[in-house]
Amino acid sequence: MIVMRLRQVSLLAFTMVLSFLLYFQMFQRTLGTFPTRFAGLLAVIGALFLVLWGLLLEFQPYASQSILPCVLMLTTIGTAMVARIDAEMDTDVAYRQLIWTCVALVCTALLVVFLRDYRILRRFSYVSMVVGLALLLSPMLPVIGKEIGGARIWIGFGSHTLQPGEFAKLFLAFFFAAYLFDHRDQLAVGGRKVLGMRLPRVKDLGPIIVIWFASMGVLIMQHDLGTSLLYFAMYVSMLYVATGRKSWMAIGFVAFVAGSAAAARLFAHVGYRVQAWLHPFDAQVYNQYPGGSSQLVKGLFGMASGGILGTGIGQGHPSITPLANSDFIYSSIGEELGLTGLLAVLVLYVVIITSGFITAMKIKDGFGKLLAAGLVFTMAFQVFTVVGGITLVIPLTGLTMPYMAAGGSSLIANYLLAGLLIVISNAANRPAVDTDSDTFEYEALAVLRERELSQRSSHRHAAGEARA
C-alpha cells in the first residue's frame, strides 16, 4: 500500500512540476517575468490539489488515481494558453479562470467528503429532473436571461454571467440513470425483427421521443445546437447501456440525423455552420456575414502553421482566430504546441475516459454503472464534437473543451463530473468483503442482535402505550 501511495503522489508531483515549467516558460517569453499575483494564485491551486488528493486518500481510498493528475494537466495547458492569449490581446481572462479553478477544487473536495455513497442520488431522481429542466430553461427568463453570440444559454447578474446548462447535464444524468435503471426490463423487451435487428415495442418509444422533442426545444428556443445534441446523445448512450439493444442506438442515430437535417433547413444559424463546414474555403462563404467560415479557416491555418512540434509557447499568433481562448482553444494549442501537443491533450482525455469506462464495467450496482457510463460518454462526446468541428470532421456545434476553455461554469461542472467518477470508482475498486471470515460472521451476528433488541423495545413501548 505504501509503495502504491508513493507512486500516486509521485505522479501528482510530476504533473505539478510540468505545470510550473509550462507557466514559467510562457511568462518568460510573453512578459519577461513571472507575475507575482499569478505565482501566489498558482501556489494556492497547487496546495488545493494536494488537499484534494489527501481527502481522496481519507474518504475515497480505493478511487482511481489517474483522473486527478490528468485533470490538473489539462487545466494547466488550458489556463496557460489563455494567459498567453491575454498577453497578446491585453485582457485578463486567465486570472479569473484560475480563481474559478480554486472554486472548482473546493466544490470537488466537498463532493468527495460528503458524497460517501453515490447511490443516495437515486432517491432524488425526479427532483434532479426538475432541477435539471429548471437550469436548462432558466436562460429563457426575461430579466436574467442573456443572449451572447446568437445563443440564449446564459443568465446574467450585472457584469457576471453563468451558463446553467453545464450544471443541468449533471442533474439530468442523475435522472436518466435512475429512470433507466428502474425501467430497464421493460425497455429491453423487443418487438418485431426488421433487417436482422429486433426493434423496441411502440409503447416503449415514448421516453426517447420525449427526449428528442426536448432537445429540439432547446435548439429552437435557445439556438444552441451543441447542448441539444449533447443531451440527446447522453440519453441514447445510457439507454443502450441499460438494455444492451443495438436497435435503440439505430433509432437514436436516425432521430439525430433527421433532427440535424431539419435544423439545418429551418434555422439560419445551423444552416450557416453546415455551409461553412461543406465549403470553408469558398470566397463567398468565407466573407459571408453572419455565418461565414473565416473563423474556422483561421483556426485551421493556425494549426497548420504549428506543424509537428509547434511554434513554441508564446511564439505564435493564436489571437488572430476569434474566440481563441474558448471555442477555438484547441487550434491555439495546435499552433504553439503542434501536432505533438494536440495528441498529448487527446491522450489525457483518453486516460480519463478509459478510467470512467473501466469504472462502469467494474461497478456491480446498476445505477452506478449507468451513471458512470453516462457521465464519461458526455465528456467523450463533447471532446469529439469540439475537435471534430475544428478539424472539419463535423460542423461546429458551439461546445467547449472540458477543463481547458475559458469559462467558469464549464470548469466547475466538469470538475464535479470528474469528482463523481472518482466517487463511483471508489465503490468499483473497493475489495469485496470476505463473507467466510470470522470477523464478518461476528459483525453480522452483532447487527442481528441489535436489530432484535430494538424490535423488542419498540414492541414493549407499543404495548405500554396500549395499556395506558
Automatic annotation (TrEMBL):
One of its GO terms (cellular component) is cell division site. Keywords: Cell cycle, Cell division, Cell shape, Membrane, Transmembrane, Transmembrane helix. Its main location: membrane. GO terms for molecular function: lipid-linked peptidoglycan transporter activity. It is found in: Membrane. It is a multi-pass membrane protein. It comes from Bifidobacterium mongoliense. The chain crosses the membrane at residues 9-26, 38-59, 66-85, 97-115, 124-144, 164-181, 202-220, 226-243, 250-268, 337-358, 370-397, 403-424. It comes from the Bacteria. GO terms for biological process: cell division; regulation of cell shape. This is Cell division protein FtsW. InterPro entries: FtsW/RodA.
